[in-house]
Amino acid sequence: MRDRIIEIIGTHGKNQGALIPVLKAVQRMNPRQYIPQEASQLVARIMGLRESEVYEVVSFYGEFSETPRAEHVIKICDSTVCRVNHHRELVDILEHTLGIRVGEASRDGKFFLEYSPCFGACDVAPALRIDDKVYGNLDRDKLEAILEAYRR
Ligand code: FES
Question: Would you state the CATH architecture of domain 72-151?
């Protein structure tokens, strides 16, 4: 892990502004999409920051998780426009299809479900994000096809 983190910091630099991109890359390198405490400590040490500065960023931003998730993180928008555009149906389809509840990982380790505040895709509500990709205007058929594509 240390060598990979050194490599990531080498790419992004050590200034304060590089912290978020560095943490994103550190989280992505983990197959369960999270930042373990040991990784935060290494980032702080190598970038010359206080550990508390790094922990603050990790715990403040909804992008980051300190606990293991899964290969793909599904973020279901839970803000007003998606709520009034039947986001509850999306949640039901996802929970039923994946056999999990929001806040859980599927048994095969492929998907983790969580809520997210608005990420600016209101014009295509109801919307969700899988990793960094946004999907909108979703209905059952579209959602099942998307999940199938990630399973391959
Ligand atoms: S309210 Fe859902 S993306 Fe904006």
Answer: 3-Layer(aba) Sandwich (3.40)
